[in-house]
Amino acid sequence: MEPNTSSVSQLKKRKRGLDIKNLEKVLNTEPDDYELAPSTLSLPEARQIFNLRKVQDVLWAGIEELPIPQYLSDTIDRILAVTSETFQTNEAFSRTIIDQILISAIYEENHTQASHQRDQSQPEDPAILDLKHETQIQRQVTYKGETRMLSGYADYTVWYDSQTRSNLATNLIIIEAKKICSTDTCMGQLTAYMGAVHAYRKDEQKQNSVVYGAASDGLSFRFCRIDNEGNWSDSLLMEWEKGHKSTIYSIFRSLIRIAALSSPTTSLIKNIQQREEVLASFGSPERISRFDYALSALKVLEEDDETEIISLRERSS
Q1: Phi–psi pair at 240, nearest 5 degrees
Q2: Which of 228, 264, 299, 262 has the alpha carbon at shortest distance from 275?
Q3: Burial letters for 86-104: b for 16+ Cβ neighbours within 10 Å, e otherwise?
Q4: Contact criterion met (CB below 8 Å) for 279 and 261
Q5: Angle between helices 70-82 and 91-119 in degrees, nearest 10
Q6: Could you report the per-residue pLDDT of 226-246, keeping only the tens digit for each?
Q7: To bridge 269 with a disulfide, which of 112, 180, 275, 301 should be the other Cys (CB 3.0-4.6 Å)?
Q8: Which 3-state string (H, E, C) describes 92-112?
């Protein structure tokens, strides 16, 4: 039996197809669990993701202590005096203290640099450093057998002269803040950020892949480092109000000094005596040989103009 004309016409109008733009959108849609928040990682998980080996190397155990500027000590005392104990338990209070210490350490090192430039005609002038807040760090990683995008915002990072250059710091310093009595709870998060930067430098075949970090609740501090070989080590927990003020401040000054002397504008100081003279003018710790910047020539990470995002996706083959 032949179908009538209206039925044939109706069948011919039934066409199926796919909108290319919609298909592309579907194919590019990431699953809800694709992003991996660094804050959800434990310290062992973060080290495992980036194949970091824990080594028993207590950092800065014998550092030469620098005097704390009186204005810094007075400012922190005033903050503690005017902030009720109830509000000293939140992260905002912790950041208030960390802000003061970092600003002072960077300012004093920059000021020392300016004095150094006036007093000596050295070609290896350290860079002026800048402090940034909430810097996004991303990298594609393998977590529990699945490809995930590690993505988060580091509370503090120290950069070279970021207002006039498009380069990222070779020795990027990362600091994570937490509420009181929670310093060690962010070690996994901090290590994940450090591991991402370290891995990216390895991808770029940087000869200096060392990354430094610090976790703090404003009153207690723990510092850590990833060296060129992927060895992870940390310091003892130090407390500002329990006799460690000068040590904490001196370590921050030391880290900033290492970054400044490893800057894109600073050539490697190969002469040992000259290097010691330059470091001495910066109030250097006595263990000069431990400074990673003196190990080899340094290269520079490139950053897109006017962005604070470190693109850390794996390279395509």
Answers
A1: -60, -40
A2: 262
A3: eebeebebbbbbbbbbbeb
A4: yes
A5: 170
A6: 998 999 999 999 999 888 999
A7: 275
A8: HHHHHHHHHHHHHHHHHHHHH
DSSP-derived pairing of the beta strands 231-234 and 53-54: parallel
Strand partners, 156: 133, 175
237/198 Cα distance (integer angstroms): 23
pLDDT tens-digit profile of 181-191? 899 999 999 99
Query: CA-to-CA distance for 304 and 287, rounded, in angstroms?
Result: 36
pTM more than 0.90? no
Q: In 84-188, at which residue ranges do the beta strands (DSSP E only) sit?
A: 129-143, 146-160, 167-168, 173-177
Asked if 63 and 285 count as a contact pair (C-beta separation under 8 A), the reply is yes
d(CA 194, CA 224) in angstroms, rounded, equals: 9
Q: In this predicted model, what pLDDT tens digit does every residue of 123-181 receive, in sequence order?
A: 555 566 678 888 889 899 999 999 999 999 999 988 755 554 443 444 478 999 999 88
Tokens of 183: 């310093």
Largest CA distance in the chain: 106
* Three-state SS at 142: strand
Q: Is the dihedral of CA 105, 111, 115, 116 positive or negative?
A: positive
**Whole-angstrom distance, CA of residue 161 vs CA of residue 169:** 9
Q: Is 264 exposed, middle or buried (0-12, 13-18, 19+ CB in 10 A)?
A: middle
Chain center to CA of 37: 15
Give dist(CA 206, CA 217) in Å, integer: 32
Phi/psi of residue 33, nearest 5 degrees = -100, 20
Q: Which two tokens stand for residue 192?
A: 């994940």
Token pair belonging to 65: 């202590």
Nearest CA-CA partner of 37 in 115, 122, 143, 134: 143
Residues 301, 297: Cα–Cα separation, whole Å: 14
